[in-house]
Design a protein that fits this description.
The structure holds two protein chains of two kinds.
Chain A: H1 3-10, H2 14-19, E1 30-34, E2 44-47, E3 54-59, E4 74-78, E5 89-91, E6 96-98, E7 105-107, E8 113-116, E9 126-130, E10 135-141
Antiparallel strand pairs in A: 1-10, 2-3, 3-4, 5-6, 6-7, 7-8, 9-10
Chain B: E1 18-23, E2 32-39, E3 74-79, E4 82-90, E5 128-131, E6 134-137, H1 140-157, E7 163-167, H2 176-190, E8 196-197, H3 209-213, H4 225-228, E9 231-235, H5 244-256, E10 260-264, H6 270-279, E11 284-287, H7 294-307, H8 313-319, E12 325-327, E13 337-338, H9 340-347, H10 351-358, H11 362-373, E14 384-388, H12 390-393, H13 398-411, E15 422-424, H14 447-452, E16 458-462, H15 473-493, H16 499-511, E17 516-521, E18 533-536, E19 545-548, E20 553-557, H17 570-587, H18 591-595, H19 605-611, H20 613-616, H21 622-628, E21 633-634, E22 639-641, E23 644-646, E24 669-670, H22 682-688, E25 691-696, H23 705-708, H24 712-717, E26 722-725, H25 727-732, E27 740-745, E28 748-756, E29 764-768, E30 796-803, H26 807-810
Helix pairs in contact in B: 1-16, 1-17, 2-17, 2-19, 5-6, 7-10, 7-11, 7-13, 10-11, 15-16
Classes of the chains: A mainly beta, B alpha/beta.
């Protein structure tokens, strides 16, 4: 084990410590789509906060808590299963995201609540906002995304 | 909105973090985990040389990576008196789970007590005594002195039969060889307590008497047998939901290797649904029998196998009894045992008879027999592994039903061979090592009824909460509370007096019908509300703890943190009780009796391990187990060679059966004669009520619901005990999803939350078992079998709405549990 390197990482100069003093990550505001691009119950592939974190943007057709847009029905989630990181698929029939690896599933209408499964958290949801032109931006995440110990790498 | 932790970053495990072996202490499977601890003022970094994984953590890690952990796997805990950072994550090198974490075990870190993060603030930190109308924290000396003085007074004035003991018998969190030995030594060696019971049943007895009487230990295979078999035959069990990583890491591999899956269960379980996904629906056979009719099904399958000549004649000739009846039916044996030929006279059942009683097509029963035993086209025998659990263990006519199932495995030679085995799946891990319990007798005393009849004066309770996990719970709770309140009142009246006056007041109340209750637990449990002395225990990893899992895999789960507050390992609490008993008895002038309580001068849990398990298994020490890591060794341990313990992959590979103690080594078949509902009152109750009240488990909190009652992630998902119902039945009763309902019958009342489940049969509900917020046991009748095994599974009741959904329930997802791919 490279203990010398680890020790080096924990001994910072005052300047370095100051530079890293933020308690939470800074999220980018990324444009995902325009509201006009979305069809009801047709998932749109997106990624957030970066290209290595795949997600899905959904217009559910019915207002949900946390939904944005004129109908309050637009939501976005990570599609990496928080159990073991398998890529999940969307079931339009019951508006859930489903994991082919070990059969966990998450309800897109209740903020990504795990309906049944092995993950120890509900599904990471992306915080959305709309501007006047209908552009949809993501600018936050409410759970740790699978495969990264910092949501912004 | 669902509960979210709002954690966007976690501390990184530094490369030099301390590393510990952890076996998950919640369920029987015992998945391997690794715990890492490091100081608060240190953290690892993203560069490969800065973290434990040696990888670049500034990049996204991919599917199944070892180099990631969820927020639930992190906490801040006490270690050697200092706060340290902790990560507990699945071990990719453990053969049990190969890096898979369950929704339970992968929350072990979050479910540790922490004064820093506030998790599990419900954990008991100090001994408490009932004093001046409330529970007051006190010293161990004060609490143990009161326990010993009252206990000694009662058993010397009366007898040891006046001391009733409820104690765990298992491994895992509360048990392990350390703690079962210490409690066993106290109650079965220093004393000969007859009125004992276990955590989940009202007597001190086996749950699988018949398997043992037939010669078979109930855990006789290796988990890899599921990968090597041709057919998995699962009865009354739901492993995807409960033994999750046994299912995912072993059974699924079997299904992907081409194994077929037979499920016997009145309801369509998540295991059946997932097996259809993994194996293809054509390779899954669900026998959705009428509740309680398993024995008839097994007898018909056996008959079909025998009549078609699909038995393993060589195995039967060499390894099973040949001389007719070997054991007659009597008070201790609810069925006769003997040769296959002998028991067939009783078991013989046609496919049509079984179809009629079980409510499934005769062709499906025949198909099950084919999948289990019909030789392959090349003439080779078919391998079948049989797995069962509460559906029949807590079912109708336990002895004969389990026996009828074991008959099939014996007749087909599916024991002691690769891809075979006939095993219970289990709940907790095992960790039983105690002095002989022969004095308890068989049938054992029905201890709940003993207490209800007003007998017994002192009740020592070890990590049991009968408020949630006993049958006839409504009456039990009424009586237990009334009797213990008499003692509380006496204590309150005697306030201000000397210890001697207090003991005298308590004993007087006991003699008037009261009950003095000592509760040893990690939290202030519901039955603990009746306690007069509460003694705080600690869990695995706050102590070193050894247990074995469902394939007898023995591991040492290492201590990585301090016991919470002033709590102690159960083993050392038992030693403290014993030492105080010795002192008090000597003071009372009972020198010879006091001498029986010698031999508890232990300072660590390892002392108890060495005093007990090691004496019977001298090869096994902590150091050697530590070196065996998370893969441990499968019991029985047969030696120590080349620096490693030598174990036993599967039992009975020599075809010699020993569990019954017969010198001939021959297995016995069970004359499983069908007699309808065995337990008294069941048939009448069924006729009187519309709904069958099945009790079931949920993967989210199976085996750790006592902790999860204070876990936000879990409470968000199930704010009330779920009662799954067919949606059409809900319409009938005017119930919407999430509405609160109550279940009523002559035994009592319980409550829960209506949860639509379209796959259920009509007039059937599936209620979660053991919920702190709604005990299913309230409505279970006191009926048991001849050996005092409860039939929790068969209860009928009426249902009515009591409230619209609460705000918490309205946020819950009620969608189908079955994956849609």
């Amino acid at each position: 084990m490279a203990t010398a390197g680890a020790a080096a990482a924990t001994v910072l100069t005052p300047e370095q410590a100051k530079a890293r003093a933020l308690a939470r990550v800074d999220y980018p505001a990324n444009r995902l789509a325009n509201i006009a691009d979305l069809m009801v119950n047709e998932p749109m592939d997106i990624s957030y906060p970066d290209a290595d974190s795949p997600g899905v943007l959904l217009k559910l057709g019915q207002a949900v808590e946390g939904g944005v847009g004129p109908e309050g029905d637009v939501v976005a989630f990570s599609v990496l299963c928080p159990h073991k990181g398998w890529m999940m698929s969307y079931s339009a029939a019951d508006k859930t995201l489903n994991c082919p690896g070990h059969h966990s599933r998450f309800d897109c209408e209740t903020g990504g609540q795990q309906v049944w499964g092995h993950a120890t958290s509900n599904l990471a949801q992306f915080t959305l906002r709309l501007d006047d032109s209908g552009d949809i931006y993501a600018d936050g995440v409410d759970e740790l995304i699978y495969g990264r110990l910092s949501n912004v790498l | 909105m669902a509960y979210k932790r709002q954690i966007d970053r976690l501390p990184i495990i530094p490369a030099d973090a301390q590393e510990f072996n952890v076996t998950c202490h919640y369920c029987i499977v015992g998945c391997g985990y690794k715990a890492y601890t490091w100081p608060m003022n240190r953290q690892g970094g993203t560069e490969p040389n800065q973290n434990k994984f040696g990888v670049d953590l500034s990049e996204q890690q991919f599917t199944e990576t070892e180099a990631w952990y969820a927020p639930s796997m992190y906490n801040v805990v006490r270690q050697n008196g200092k706060d340290v950072q902790l990560v507990v994550k699945p071990d990719v090198n453990c053969v049990v789970n190969s890096g898979l974490g369950s929704i339970r075990g992968a929350r072990m870190a979050e479910n540790r007590p922490s004064k820093v993060t506030g998790t599990q603030a419900q954990r008991l930190s100090d001994p408490m005594v009932w004093r001046n109308g409330v529970w007051q924290p006190t010293s161990w000396d004060d609490a143990l002195d009161l326990v010993a003085r009252v206990t000694a007074a009662v058993i010397t004035q009366g007898s040891e039969d006046d001391l009733v003991v409820s104690m765990f018998d298992h491994g895992g969190s509360a048990g392990g060889y350390e703690n079962t030995w210490a409690t066993g030594k106290l109650y079965f060696e220093s004393m000969k307590i007859k009125n004992a019971r276990m955590h989940n049943r009202p007597a001190y007895n086996s749950e699988v008497h018949s398997s043992r009487d037939m010669g078979l230990d109930e855990l006789n295979y290796a988990y890899e047998d599921y990968e090597l078999t041709d057919t998995i035959f699962m009865v009354g069990a739901n492993s995807m939901e409960t033994q999750t990583n046994l299912y995912l890491n072993h059974m699924v591999k079997g299904l992907q290797n081409g194994a077929r899956f037979i499920a016997v269960d009145p309801r369509r379980t998540i295991t059946i649904a997932s097996s259809e996904q993994f194996a293809g629906p054509e390779n899954v056979l669900h026998l959705a029998i009428a509740e309680g009719t398993d024995m008839v099904l097994f007898n018909a399958i056996l008959t079909h196998i025998v009549d078609n000549g699909w038995v393993d004649a060589e195995f039967i000739a060499n390894s099973t009894f040949q001389g007719g009846e070997a054991v007659a039916q009597d008070e201790a044996h609810p069925a006769a045992l003997g040769s296959l030929e002998h028991v067939m006279a009783t078991c013989r059942t046609t496919l049509d008879e079984a179809a009629e009683i079980c409510g499934v097509p005769a062709a499906d029963i025949a198909k099950a027999a084919e999948w289990i035993a019909q030789p392959k086209e090349d003439g080779s025998r078919r391998k079948c592994v049989t797995a069962y659990e509460k559906g029949i263990i807590w079912g109708n006519d336990n002895y004969r039903t389990v026996g009828a199932l074991v008959n099939i495995a014996l007749a087909t030679g599916n024991v002691g061979r690769e891809g075979g085995g006939v095993c219970r799946l289990g709940g907790h891990q095992e960790g039983y090592y105690r002095p002989s319990d022969a004095h308890v007798g068989r049938p054992a005393e029905y201890v709940d009824q003993y207490l209800i009849r007003g007998l017994g004066g002192v009740h020592h309770i070890w990590a049991c909460d009968h408020y949630k996990t006993t049958l006839n719970a409504s009456e039990y709770k009424r009586v237990h509370k009334r009797r213990s309140d008499m003692v509380k009142d006496a204590i309150d009246m005697a306030a201000g007096g000397s210890r001697a006056q207090m003991v005298e007041a308590i004993v007087s109340a006991i003699n008037a019908g009261g009950l003095f209750v000592v509760d040893v637990d990690i939290i202030h449990s519901q039955i603990g509300q009746n306690a007069h002395v509460i003694l705080p225990a600690c869990e695995a990893n706050e102590m070193n703890l050894t247990s074995m899992n469902g394939e007898r895999r023995l591991r040492l789960s290492e201590k990585y943190m301090d016991p919470f507050g002033n709590s102690r390992p159960d083993a050392l609490i038992a030693a403290g009780v014993a030492r105080n008993m010795e002192r008090v008895l000597r003071e009372m002038g009972h020198d010879a009796y006091a001498d029986q309580f010698k031999g508890y001068d232990w300072t660590t849990e390892e002392d108890s391990f060495m005093d007990g398990y090691n004496k019977g298994n001298p090869e096994v020490t902590y150091d050697r187990l530590r070196a065996m890591g998370n893969n441990g060794v499968q019991e029985p341990v047969t030696g120590f060679e080349n620096g490693a313990l030598v174990g036993t992959k599967r039992l009975y590979t020599d075809g010699v059966f020993t569990r019954h103690g017969r010198e001939d080594g021959k297995a016995l078949f069970c004359a499983a004669g069908w007699r309808g509902w065995q337990a008294p009152g069941k048939a009448r109750e069924q006729a009187a009520h519309r709904f069958w009240i099945n009790n079931v488990r949920a993967n989210i909190f199976w085996q750790n619901q006592f902790l999860d009652q204070k876990n936000d992630f879990v409470q968000d998902r199930y704010p009330h005990p779920f009662v799954e119902m067919h949606p059409d039945d809900m319409v009938d009763l005017g119930l919407n999803p999430g509405d609160l309902l109550e279940i009523v019958n002559d035994n009592g009342v319980t409550q829960g939350m209506a949860y639509p489940m379209p796959t259920l049969k009509r007039d059937t509900v599936a209620m979660v078992f053991g919920s702190p917020a709604g005990s299913q046991g309230n409505v279970v009748s006191p009926g048991v079998n001849e050996l005092v095994l409860p039939d929790y599974k068969h209860t009928w009741g009426s249902i009515r709405k009591i409230s619209d959904a609460t705000p918490a329930a309205r946020k819950v997802s009620f969608k189908s549990h079955e994956v849609v791919l």
